[in-house]
Design goal:
The two termini are 15 Å apart. The longest helix is centred in the first third of the chain and has 19 residues. The protein is of the alpha/beta class and 231 residues long. It contains 8 helices and 8 strands; from the N terminus they run αββββααβααβααββα.
Length: 231
Amino acid sequence: MIIPEHKEQFLRELEDTICSLETKLGQGQFVRPFVCAGALTACDVFIVGVNPREEMEFRSYWDGSSFNKAAWEDEYQRQRLARTGRESMSPTRTKLNLICEGALPANVLETNLYPFATSTEQILRRDPALQNDAIFALLLRRLRPRVVITHGKTARDRVVKLLALQENEVREASLDMKVKPSNPAQFTKARHRAWGDSPVVYLKALRHLGRNYSYDFMRQLGERVREIVAV
């Protein structure tokens, strides 16, 4: 969590960064850097993917310091149901919500390396202009979360580099990407060595959520996050 006296400076810097990316992207396309329930600066848990899969408007739900997740999700469900005619939640969104619910009262930030929506990661890789992680790097550097959960190899690799983790920490954190079934209670205790005071971070690196892991696993994972943050 950010130090209170640095809050306004951080929010101004964040707004400038978002505006810069919106300008580069152009009209008619959306930047969606994160989703959270309430105050951004209260978030001490990060769930990090690569990029959004579906375009959704961001500004109407963000007031410069807090995000209205309930209203955003209502619109998300409406649009998805209209588009698919079958379901109002993707498997990934359902699982993200289960983690967030299990982690309460911890504040969870759902974010991505890149805030631009593409239907596949391959499309993202073909366009270097979309591979801009300035917002995510700022969020990680200034909010300094106590818990970070990554999903997908690309997200894991970038996060461990930004945190400057040691090789043994990277190996331990990556076990959940190789072992089936994974243990939802097992986190790697590491340090943010990118900063001088090297604060502790609990890291878990997962495979992609949508096509892996049960709903019960997600609930247990959220409960373990709640236990870590409560200590």
